[in-house]
Amino acid sequence: MSSANLRSKFRQWRSTLWALPLSLVLSAATSSTFAADNVVIGVIFPTQQHARVAFEIRILEETAKANGDKVIVQYSMESAATQKNQVEAMIERGVDVIILQAIDAKAASALVTEAQSQGIKVITYDRGVTDAKVDFHISRDNYEMGTLQATSALTAVPCGKYAIIRGDKATVAQIDMSRAYDKLVKSKTCIDVVHDVFVSGWETAGAQREAEAALQAHPDLNAFLIMWDTGAQAVVQTLKSAGVTPGTVWVTGSDATTPSLAYINQGWQGQTTWTPIDQMAIDAANLAHDLGTGSEPRIKGVLVDGVRNDFPKLTSVTKENLCEFVTKIAPKGWVDNDAVFGAGINPCT
């Protein structure tokens, strides 16, 4: 085990001892039951508000438990200041590995460096950082995500008026998806981008406000290119309120959440992109165990700018392959068939 890992183990042991009565401290000090391969994993996510988060955390915790590890989970409520405090508290607590979903890619870089200076391994998850080399990054390929969304829109609406609603400007996911949008959509001369905005914190209410503004100014819009499902759902509500006929405006999204799958079935949303978050969560827990114990990571990944990346396979979901997604691709427990197709109705059987 490396000296950094030994220091991390000492911090973990010391923190545990401080919390115990003296009699138990003396007992623990003479006990040989402490397992050197037990890893304490600090998980810091920006929010609990997205449907995928509870699903991922459950799988991550189950996988870590099977590895003999402990998971401490905290949510930053989309506040970079809160996330900074949480990372520093994890460092003080003496965790072995931090799994971090960065709110501000630049600000979080300093947190990564600070944790690593204390011998703590850092895995960035879904949202990366810009100015630090983490020990591993687990994420969908967000450029590919943007490509799938833009391609679906261009196939459905090769020419016409587009509104683009992008996510938070400070996140790497938005930056990478935007590169694909700009290359594929904004370069086409017959596409008129009449509304193009960022939404701070990937806020659903913000997406709805922008959709309302875009539709009010341009009631003949042909497509909403939007990066995330709850934002897409807000767009659908706006279209409904405006009396738009389902299927006449193409709307993209990501995460293949049940409400968006239902809207795809009904014709309101054109596309969503599925990231196998179940596999991401499993990989995160396993990599945390490997890095925390100083073992060779069981996942090799792809080297990008000196950092190992674990990219899962993405699936673009439209009405054409909705049944295939529901019956073959989606993990157990992710899709509520009744909510997608209606109670007792399943056209996929």
Describe the protein.
The radius of gyration is 22 Å and the shape is globular. It folds into two domains: 3-140 and 277-310, 3-Layer(aba) Sandwich (Rossmann fold); 142-274 and 318-341, Rossmann fold, CATH 3.40.50.2300. A seven-stranded mixed sheet has the order 2-1-3-4-5-12-11, with helices on both faces. It has a four-stranded parallel sheet with strand order 7-6-8-9, with helices on both faces. It has 349 residues and is α/β, with parallel strands linked by helices. Helices cover 46% and strands 17% of the residues.
Strand composition percent: 15-25%
User: What shape does the CA trace take?
Assistant: globular
Count of all domains: 2
Helix content: 40-55%
What's the CATH H-level superfamily name of the largest domain? Response regulator
CATH architecture of the largest domain: 3-Layer(aba) Sandwich
| Widest sheet, order of strands | 2-1-3-4-5-12-11
Number of strands: 13
Round the mean pLDDT to the nearest integer and report it. Answer: 90
Largest sheet: 7 strands, mixed
Total helical elements: 13
Radius of gyration, rounded? 22 Å
Low-confidence stretches: 17-34
Structural class: alpha/beta
What is the ordering of alpha helices and beta strands? HHEHEHEHEEHEHEHEHEHEHEEEHH
CATH class of the largest domain: Alpha Beta
